[in-house]
Design brief:
Blueprint: H1 18-36, H2 40-43, H3 56-70, E1 77-86, H4 106-109, E2 131-133, E3 151-155, E4 160-161, E5 164-168, E6 172-175, E7 183-188, E8 196-199, E9 207-210, E10 219-223, E11 230-236, E12 241-243, E13 249-255, E14 258-266, E15 270-280, E16 285-293, H5 294-299
Parallel strand pairs: 1-16, 3-6, 5-11
Antiparallel strand pairs: 1-13, 2-12, 2-14, 3-4, 6-9, 7-8, 7-10, 10-11, 14-15
């Protein structure tokens, strides 16, 4: 078993005369309309992008990050940044090729290509699926309520959606499936009780998964029926965590002012940084940039599995 130890625009009104106000308002509306329109770069992936098409699970994860970033009580601050890959992204073969007759449950799992999502690079070499978090809540932090709304962890096309998920201890995760075949979802936890259950075909109701203890590192999630299916869940008992989006961006809000040491972790690198120190200013946002050398991607194949030696008496 492997041990696998996410501003307001400031409107400046110049009160001069009615005509000037009207002109400023009209200009503001025009600019807002332009800014709200997607640019060509947003609509067309850059040539260097290797990310798969955004799935429903990824959209849900982005919504989670945005909701977390929005909650920043007065007197606290935020850290916002981007993680990039320094160097050329590795070329990864797909986990399952479309039409591969030798794939397990090929009629479903090989209906479309299953991409290798262990390294996903987006715009400007932004690196997706990097976890940034505090191992423990800051001293004096009052535990807030665990979100009541469940998180959906889905399986579609023999892929886990999303690939990376942020979860609070005690929060309900609904494990669903949109595939007409069975899966077996298995979490590889270190501290908490593992989840290991069969998920029936086309289960849109979901099987509840509730983590009972925080983990120091993101835990691997696998399907025991389809060996290539993997994802990672970061389980903490506080909200100070993030995972980078498709373009390597992240934000963590509501942090007490002062210096904090974050863990930065990626599945193909392990620890990017164990003690990444950031100084948070009250009612402000600290912007950071981190770079991960591409060479580390080639030199690391994930956490080593536990070695268990069993001796039997004659």
């Amino acid at each position: 078993m492997k041990r696998v130890f996410r501003v307001p625009s400031v409107r400046v009104f110049s009160v001069v005369r009615f005509a000037a106000i009207a002109l400023a308002a009209t200009t503001g509306w025009l600019l807002a309309g332009q800014l709200s329109q997607p640019t060509q770069a947003d609509e067309q992936p850059a040539a260097t992008r290797t990310r798969p098409a955004r799935a429903a699970g990824e959209t849900q994860l982005l919504a989670f990050n945005q909701a977390t970033a929005a909650k920043s009580p007065k007197g606290t601050g935020a850290v916002s940044g981007v993680v990039t890959l320094s160097g050329a992204a590795p070329t990864l073969a797909p986990l399952v090729k479309k039409g591969d007759p030798n794939a397990k449950d090929a009629a479903v799992c090989a209906a479309e290509t299953v991409p290798n999502e262990s390294v996903v690079v987006g715009a400007d070499n932004g690196l997706a699926n990097v976890f940034i978090y505090l191992v423990r809540a800051p001293a004096g932090h009052k535990a807030d309520a665990v979100p009541k709304d469940p998180i959906v962890f889905d399986q579609k096309g023999c892929r886990f959606l999303p690939h990376s998920l942020l979860v609070r201890v005690g929060q309900t995760v609904l494990v669903k499936s949109g595939d007409p075949i069975a899966h077996n979802t298995h979490t590889v936890t270190v501290r908490g009780t593992p989840f290991n259950q069969a998920i029936k075909a086309d289960d849109r109701v979901g099987t509840p998964l509730i983590y009972d203890k925080p983990e120091k590192l993101p835990c691997e999630v696998k399907c025991d029926l389809h060996s290539w299916m993997k994802a990672y869940h970061l389980v903490l008992d506080h909200p100070f965590m993030a995972v980078t989006d498709a373009d390597g961006k992240f934000q963590i809000a509501g942090l007490p002012s002062g210096k904090h040491k974050f863990v930065v972790w990626h599945e193909k690198v392990g620890y990017v940084n164990r003690d990444y120190e950031v100084e948070i200013k009250a009612d402000g946002t600290t912007d950071v940039k981190l770079a991960v050398p591409a060479a580390k991607m080639a030199a690391f194949n994930g956490p080593a599995p536990r070695s268990i030696v069993v001796s039997a008496a004659d």
